[in-house]
Protein 1
Amino acid sequence: MQTPKDTSENVICETEIEIKNAEGLHMRPAMQFVDLANRFDSDITVSNSETHVDGKSIMQMSMLAATCGTQLRVKAEGPDAHEAINALRELVEEKHFDEPTPKNSG
Amino acid sequence: MEIKKGIAASPGISIAKSLIIDSEDYRIPRRQIKSSQRMIEIQRVRNAFKDAIGELTQFEAAQDQTEGGKIKDIFAVHLRWLHDRSLRKKITDLVHGESVTAEYAVSTVLRQIASHFTKEKDAYISERAADIYDIERRLLRQLLGKKREDVGHLTEEVVIVARELSPTQTAGFNRTFVKGLASDAGGRTSHAAIVARSLGIPAVVALEDFTEYVLGGDTVIVDGNRGIVIVNPDDETIRQYREYSKEFAALEHRLDAIRQKPAVTRDGTEITLLGNIEFPAEAEVVLKKGGDGIGLYRTEFLYLNTESEPTEQDHYEAYAETVSVFADRPVVIRTVDLGADKYTQSKRFAPEPNPFLGLRSIRFCLQNLMMFKTQLRAILRVSVLGDVKIMFPLITNRQELMQAKMIVRDVMEDLGEESIPYNPDIQVGIMIETPSAALTAYSLASDVDFFSIGTNDLTQYTLAVDRGNELVSPLYSAADPAVLRLIRNVIQDAHKAQIDLSVCGEMASEPEYIMLLLGMGVRTMSLSPPMIPEIKQIIRSVTMEDCNKVARKVLSMSSERHISSYLRDAARKILPEAF
């Protein structure tokens, strides 16, 4: 994780996360992600290899169609960027949206 | 100028601006708007979102945590979508950028998103499309629901254009402003067409993709005599149609003049002409057109127009109003013939896969005895006010008839115990509208006072053709030899048992069938009220000898096409101006 300081008070913070729950970023996980992202003042951008989307829009997040194993780049920009990234990473990679992970993943 | 051919469903000519009613059940066609209209449409989009959010928030709050709160979660997800500004912006951008209607923009954007999901191989993702379609329908319901309400507050004359019209919708139209109907779907005997005819609104149905040709506000001519609709007619066409419309009105007027004369053939055979009605208000139309009573009083409207089940008093008041118009002349009240509609289907968890062969009509009543008894009580109570008769629809076997009659006796006993007066000798009859009833008419005849042949359903069930489906509606014909043989059978069995017989289907409203029906032995017909004068004119122009000849000839023919053209020729000779 890198946390370069912006010239203003805004912080830019970025990380790579991997979708680990079996069903991928379907409707309910997308809702959890968006709900969490909306709690922060920072702008949140999520990108896969093809496109960047607004991490606070359920439509745009759903349209990423991220499945189990997809790598996403999450970027936060704003006063609470650091906290936002930590919270989102925890939701996706540690809690896996409170959903099961694939059985064969050990 | 664009001319489209459909099926003539209700006679008359109308020329007016079009008002389009789309349906969330079908694809929304692309419709351009003027750029000055864009802000109005954008505001409609915003309102639709706002109202959909309001509706969904209520649903969500009403859900408990059953099944781990899964249902609640689904609503919560849909709410997030409706709150998503980027979704709303996509839609309003489309309205703004391409000058299209709110409905089209909503439908297009959400379907693009849905198709984005269906393209994904991952099943979990592709299933999301269903959620998106659900959101689309919710928004469209908001947009279209408001538009439907607007139809109730018209201030200028319009022709209503729709993919499909329900009978309830049609009955709700304000006749002062709704001058004509044009629909993509439907057949001549679909219920909406029947309602249009009884209200006297010219209608053309089965126009296939007509809603895609017409823009709201276009001038449209509905020619309900020839089954033609013309969009944006040129001045010459409008002039011709104004002329034609005048001639048609003059013919109607001439026919009305024979109102007071009896329906009797040239060689003295008297025929009874009754009216088919739906609402008490139509009883007056029957009298005005010279009808001798009501041969078919449909009672479904009591159920379809309101959210709650009608009370005994609701039934009583409607029937009493009708009976009072006719004093001692017959009023045949058909017990409720519901099926495949909002009322019965809303009582089920899932719609019936094949409602026309399902729990409808008398079958539904026999399984919902409370409801059935409520109606029977009301009918029996009005039986002391005039010559009221009870008629059961869709009887398919003797056991159903016996069950229904037993319930009538139960209700009579209840009334007797409560000292409420009723006519204990009230006549009870049945509709013959299934092949099974027609084939066993000899046995059913011994337990009823009369038969009434419902030719619409009888044709539909005999030929296995959905009369409302434009893809097969050309196969639907009462002139089919199979249908005619069944009708002849029923008439003969009724005569043998010496019970009354009438024909109450559309066949009795169609000029070309009158000679045939008379020749086959029919002496009572019940028909759409506006058709009474024309049919009477035909009866007064024929002799029984001619009619017998027509019937003999037709019953020896084996092709529907030959029979139809033979009957048309025969009728044309009698009343040329009707064709």
Note: Chain A touches chain B at residues 23-24, 26-28, 30-31, 34-35, 54, 57-60, 62-63, 65, 67 (CB under 8 Å).
Protein 2
Amino acid sequence: MPTRVIMPQLGESVAEGTVIRWLKKVGDKVERDEPLFEISTDKVDAEIPSPAAGTLTKILVKENQTVEVNAVVAEINGEGPVTAGVSVPAHEAAPHPSGVPAPPRDHEPAASPAGAPLIAPAPSASAEGAGPKIRSSPLVRRIAKEKHVDLALVKGTGQGGRISKEDILKYVAGRSAAAATTGSVTPAAPPPVKGPSPIAFSRQVQVVPMTPMRKQIAEHMILSRRTSAHVTTVFEVEMTCIAETRAQYAAEFERRHGLKLTYTPFFAKAAIEAIKQFPIINASVEGDNIVYERDVNIGMAVALDTGLIVPVLRHADEKSFLGLARAVTDLAERARSKRLSVDEVQGGTFTITNPGVFGSLFGTPIINQPQVAILGVGAIEKRAVVRNDAIAIRPMVYLVLSFDHRVIDGAVADQFMAKIKASLENWSEAVQ
Amino acid sequence: MPVLTHLEAVRQGIWEEMERDPSVFLLGEDIGVYGGAFKVTQGMLEKFGADRVIDTPISESAIVGAAVGAALMGMRPVVEMQFMDFIACGFDQIVNMAAKMHYRWGPAVPIVIRGPSGAGVHGGPFHSQSNEMWFVHTPGLKVVVPATAYDAKGLIKASIRDDNPVIFYEHKFLYRRIKDDVPEEDYLVPIGKARIAREGTDIAVITYGAMVWTALEAAQELEKEGISVEVIDLRSLVPYDEEAVLSSVRKCSKVILLHEDTRIGGFAGELAAVISEKAFEDLDGPIFRVTAPDTPVPFSPPLEEYFLPNAQRVIDAARRLAAY
Amino acid sequence: MPGLRAATIAKKVVEPDAKTLERMLYYLKLTREAEQLLERVLYRQGKIVGGVYVGRGQEAIAVGSAIQLVEGDVVFPSHRDFAAWIIRGFTLRDVFLNWLGRAHGPTRGRENTNHFGDVRRGLIPVISPLGDTCPLACGTALVQKQRARGKVTLVHFGEGTTSRGDVHEAMNLAAVWTLPVIFICNNNAYAYSTPTRQQYAVKDLSARAPAYGMPGMTIDGNDVLKVYDAARQAIKRARAGKGPSFIECKTFRMTGHSAHDAAQYVPKELFEMAAKDDPLARFEKELVAMKIVDSKRLGQLEQQIAKEIDEAVAFAESSSLPEGADAVKGVYCEAGCVWQATGV
């Protein structure tokens, strides 16, 4: 029975791959694991090893041809023993899981279903076609239904990221254990944060396994970098007006609303107004499409001692200044006390981050996928600046926009920032 | 309590039923003077006489037919097939006469057809088959497949007392290789109830006959890797203990169906369908089968070894399934 | 070819008494009338579905043999031996209920034609793979022998059936074990469309009997008294513990293999010849000649038979068909089984 060689899926959201080069031709003998062909995908280029030993009998996809993931690209006539009728033959060639085409992690070639069609049927939710699919099982889906779990939030540790029974049960246990889930920068909520596993010492190093949250962050950062064409633009904004406004209204504000009047709502409001003028800033990219989000959900990054969390202020554009102020304060408080709900850490369309809180002048933040821009606010400092050809001392702040140059050009980004600058420097809105 | 082999347990069961019920008698080739090709009926001719232990000509069809006729007259014949492979020579009488008689016009046909089946002794294609599915597929018959010596005795007794035609498979490889504490007294093992041969939580291996021992061997190995395997010994195929099967599947969420019989039309296919239908939402992975390939049983040892499912193949399947 | 007048073995034909003779006539005529209705009326009206197999022209074989059975004896009649059922105590109602597939017939609608029996009445029917009953006959005969009450088993089959392995295995077994079983071969010259010359290579099938170690005879199967005599001898042998016998009854199948077979492969002359040799006509004539019956009595018999048949058919026709769901009951014999409820 011939072994089918398939286009592997390198990366979760990858839907297709292009054959770049065949390393063998029809009729050639090939060893198992010997490099057979090279492919290119959205994410990565890779050399694909042969899933079986034998003779390459058919090449079905030519060089530079693009096919869907899991499409059959070639056939190898096996030299191995007849595997028909034997679910787990002792002499079967492939030692790694066959019959289960996994959407593997980066750079890991997919295990193609070698000529043992007798084991697992194709997973029901394998990632063919566009968009990531969640792989689980009937049992897992039933548990998810019974426990009201959004499978998108559960991390799968099974093959190819499949959510196994263990995974979902752990998630459910962690969810009830912790009052609020610890969200993360990625859409998927991780299982509850655990302390690091036992530490191994050697003479010179200390090996500490990553926490799930850390792993999530690490993955997302890399993913974001690879997804977006990151460009950063820096604007310097004079905060005199805001400072004076604050000074004027702070006490009253606190007395009346029980809230401290911080700088954050000012930045948020300015950003929202600018987004209204430049909706591309509030979009996302899907394949060859730009998806303009109707809602403006602003993520406000909060630093915790365990990492970074981005609670989302939903429908920020519908809020008044007071509403924004309240929401911002409330979210930050609950973020720190770990009382955020799952909804509150997902669905953001734009993010504001504040490196300035620890003194950084400006940063080059990484875009929070699947958004296309992120605003960084540096430290507000009194600086010597030139006004009317004379040196003046003004409170200044560097505002930074990292944006995705796939869909936002520099000119647009700068105009967006200019608008924010103008709003902040000429604040006229009521603060009540 | 005495320790008996699988074979001795069958023998003791038959002996006890012969003593207990004068309507029980035996027919078969070489069972009388010779005591049976495998000596299952040794000593019975001397004890019970030629009227009750009958050496027959080589006429499987006539022997089965005569047994049916005798059963209609109120007797309870036990027919030995020297090798269960030869049951094919009496196939018509079994599936057309014995199996359908009761359904058609009501009389009971309380016959037992028993004999050694299975491979692993270099017997070649005609002394090694597992042909139980021919009869599982024929409504009106019961099919019994004990794996332990204890069950062999209890089940042969239950089969002889059953009012239906029972096809009783002993495994020739197990005959002298497995031993068990077998009580000397009268006891029955009910037909249609499975046995949990080993408790586990991660993967259920559902099997019968000699493969129960293969599964236990694999389970022991897998325990070391932290995979907890539950082994269910079906003990009978018609009727079979569906509830035990489903219960084990629900507990473990992953299942391997194992039999020495060939693949297509094997019992695993039937179980897989039932599990998929009735326990779909309890499955955390696909249903795996480990079976012999679809070939006759080959003779030469390396061929036969390849043919037979073994512990390693079960282990491989379990590892894959565990990682799914 | 029907060379029908083979010699009898005994010098003198032992005749049964007058009462028995009249009974035999009654059964012959009853068979002929009932089968006529089954094959040429009810089937063609669509009231009987499936297949119809009758023993037209061969009625003497069942009547002459079965009439000699007593309680404890067992008969395995073939589909050409209608009378055996009535002789052993089944009613015409039983017969028609079954043919019409009714719920309260002896098979609850699960079997067709005369595929029903009763162990207590000592009648076990064929299954469609003909010849399978021969080994069963050895089984019943084995038990009869062991119980040593002088009981016997008769098993009927056609000449075509003798080509099946089961018949040979059974004949061998019967002889080796010295069983009280009588093998009665109805040689009606055609097995479906296969004439005897294409079925076997011996002149008379009784030649096979000594080959297995039992006596055999070939007789005129259309002479009910000859059948009676041959059967009597074989039964006597068997009751005495002397073992099996083989009786070949030469006759002719005066209709198709089944109701849907026009038997056009049979030369018309053979039908014409056979009609002249009709066992019913012959016996009637003989009884009249012996003054056992007269034409008035014949008329009475015919009327009685017609009435009985009509009543039974009407009963069966007005009886209910089985419920579909009954199909899945009674596959296994266990407590509460439908068969136990009906007391079969």
Note: The first strand of chain B starts at residue 3 and ends at 5.
